[in-house]
Amino acid sequence: MDICVVGAGYVGLTTSAVLAELGHRVTCVDQDREKIELLNQGGIPIYEKGLKSLVETNRKSRKLFFSDQVIDSLSQHQVIMIAVGTPSNEDGSTNLTYVKNVVELIAKSIGGHKTIITKSTVPPGTNEWMIRSLVDQGVDRQLFDVASNPEFLKEGTAVDDSLHPHRIVIGAENKRAAKRVKSLFRGIHAPVIRTSLTGAELIKYASNAFLAAKISFVNEIARICDVYGADIKDVQKGIAADPRINPFFLNAGLGYGGSCFPKDLSALIHSAKLKAIDPILLEAVIRVNETQIDVYLNKLMQRIPGLKNKQITVWGLTFKPDTDDLRASQSIKLIQRLLQTGCSVHTYDPVTDLKNDQVIHHSKLYESVEHSDALIIATEWHQFLEADWERVKKNMNGDLLLDCRNILDPDRAKKYGFYYVGVGRS
Ligand code: UDX
Is residue 80 within 8 Å of residue 147, measured between CB atoms? Predict the structure, then answer.
């Protein structure tokens, strides 16, 4: 099938490469000329395992193309997949500017029949709005079908998640559109969940909200473990043995971040409130996440009461390992709070750095802890687990190790002479 994917961000680019890999002829378009130029020269704008080679292979076999000629491509293709960004507005609602722009361009350029598939995460009712908007702009109702096909890919494993999904969700206004979407993923073995347009939109939000709720739940239990002297890892193991709970997304830590969970929770809360639903649980999930940094700053201050002029090293800047994405990173929020205390902040990250003059960023792991009074592990990069901890301790001035992702064994850390503080364990 010939497909036009609009948007060459995380989702658009990965989906384009995967659809090409599945045998389709894909043109990925973006108005960002520089990005398209880079892609056409064999470069890749993001750090994502396996994506560069997948793009390269399919580009060379002429199944994947990149173009900044958005309107031309829209008019030439019968199948259009919208994968543009849907950032948050100040009030938590979704900024649909990019989606609206694409809908306008489709309305302007439509000649023959189009199947319009929404991949972008959009609030409940958006796909229905899209139909009304196209008709209002004078497009013949017979000329298009709309379908919703949300993505569930995680940064760091985006390619693998797309090739081996747990489910394919298809929200469609009719059988013809549903069939078309299903045929895109021929070759992928996953259950297909067929629902309405709004049903698909809500599956996406409910999935992310549920995962975020699991994280906030375990983080709250970790706070209780702390005050009663229990180990969250044992509690986690004990509850996860029940298949109704399962072990995934139960790692206590500094809280969730990234481009999806914070934004999607705010959007869902906004959508609920628009219809006079009080989203009690969803708001609590956010509250636990927002106060998680306070908990660990308090622990730092308990051990080092006057932080002013002290040297604190933070390992890990990204919102999670195996990505270079700093969006809504809890680590960055923690660093901002540390700077407010007047301490000197040193950082290290395996793939990225911080453009902040107030922070001293190091490109060498062991150098980053030299003379530090405390080390905070903010992201669980594998490299940290494998560090020579004896060397780390020797380089430091102080002994506080704040393991905000519970990557180390407390007893082992103590053997090296650290004063170890984990999340719900010490
Ligand atoms: C998420 C969803 O998982 C994915 O399905 C969706 O399509 C996009 O949003 P992503 O943002 O890439 O993916 O990251 P994810 O792996 O879900 O992690 C989100 C945050 O939760 C990270 O900050 C991570 O550190 C944190 N997390 C995750 C925990 O704190 N504990 C856990 O047990 C798991």
Answer: no
Q: Which of 215, 220, 245 should be mutated for ligand 1, with most atoms under 8 A from CB?
A: 215
Nearest to 152 by CA among 99, 111, 210, 110: 210
What is the full DSSP assignment across 125-157?
THHHHHHHHHHHTT--GGGEEEEE----PPTTS
Q: Is the CB of 410 under 6 A from ligand 1?
A: no
Q: How many whole angstroms separate alpha carbon 109 and alpha carbon 116?
A: 13
Q: Is the CB of 251 under 6 A from ligand 1?
A: yes
Q: Is 260 considered catalytic here?
A: yes
Q: Whose CA is nearest to atom 6 of ligand 1?
A: 152
Q: What is the pLDDT of residues 21-54, one digit of tens each?
A: 999 999 999 999 999 999 999 999 998 999 999 9
Give the model confidence (pLDDT) of 216-268 as tens digits: 999 999 999 999 999 999 999 999 999 999 999 999 999 999 999 999 999 99
Q: What is the mean pLDDT of residues 342-363?
A: 95
Residue 52: is it exposed, middle or buried by C-beta count within 10 angstroms (0-12/13-18/19+)?
middle
d(CA 98, CA 254): 32
C-alpha 199/C-alpha 222 separation (Å) is 34
- Atom 20 in ligand 1: residue holding the nearest Cα: 256
Of the candidates 4, 28, 225, 260, the residue annotated as catalytic is 260
Residue having the nearest C-alpha atom to atom 27 of ligand 1: 256
Query: What is the distance, to the nearest Å, from the Cα of residue 351 to the centroid of all Cα atoms in its chain?
Result: 17
Neighbours of 161 (CB within 10 A): 17
Cβ of 303 closer than 6 Å to ligand 1, yes or no, is no
pTM as predicted: 0.96
For the Cβ of 150 lying below 6 angstroms from any atom of ligand 1, the answer is no
